[in-house]
Amino acid sequence: MVPRSPIDPTRAARCSVACDAGGVREDEADPFTEGRDGTAVRYTERLWAPLWLWLLVAGLVGLLAVAYGAAYGVVVGAVGMVAGTLLCWIGLVAWSPLVRVDDRVLRAGRARLPLKYTGEPELLSGEVMRNALRNGDARTFVLRRPWTSRGGICVAVTDDDDPHPRWLVASRRPQRLADAVRAARGQLGHADPAE
Q: Rounded to an integer, what distance in angstroms lies between the CA atom of residue 99 and that of residue 107?
């Protein structure tokens, strides 16, 4: 059995023909491309780790630094404490994704969903979010961190070529996130009457 290619051959052919002809690629001519963020930001949130986790990481690195300091000297312990804490904190920053809504896309971490392919956002809180994570479709795109709040939104994906039927995005302010998606979709509807 030959595995199915994730790239739509007709779209790839259209893009390559446009590139071979020296013209603008189809996805560059479309102002709502997936690879670019918009300019008018409506909502932004970084899912930072809570303060207690930052302190816990520093404490655990401190315990390890004391052990190494006792075995190899105070300088090694101090350098290990500073370097280890900084490296772990850089890891926490890198693992804190950005949730953003602008005039083109809903961005969750590094993933982008063009607003023209979004359905109506649904608020999820507490038990509903937990059930959606436990019993939901395995194809659902999920952006959540262990330290984030129990709430978020669910957005249906209307693009038939997208492998994810919906997005579950955690947020500390799910109502504001849902309102921003609705407002951006509304503006998109007025800006593009063909939709």
A: 6
DSSP 46-82: E-PPPHHHHHHHHHHHHHHHHHHHHHH-HHHHHHHHH
User: Which residues in the chain come in under a pLDDT of 50?
Assistant: 1-29, 190-195
In order, the DSSP letters of 106-133 are EEETTEEEEGGGB---EEE-THHHHHHH
pLDDT at residue 15, as a whole number? 41
- Residue 16's pLDDT is 38
Tell me if 64 sits within 8 A of 84, measured CB to CB. Answer: yes
Pair of tokens at residue 138: 């395995």
Sequence-separated (6 or more) residues with CB below 8 Å from residue 158: 117, 118, 119
How do residues 114-158 score in pLDDT, each as one tens digit? 999 999 999 998 888 888 888 888 899 999 988 777 789 999 999
Residues contacting 13, CB < 8 A, separation 6+: none
Write out the H or E segment, with its range, that includes residue 141: strand 141-143
Quote the CA–CA distance of 119 and 156 in Å, as a whole number.
5
Rounded to two decimals, the pTM is 0.71
The answer to whether 123 and 176 have CB atoms below 8 angstroms apart is no
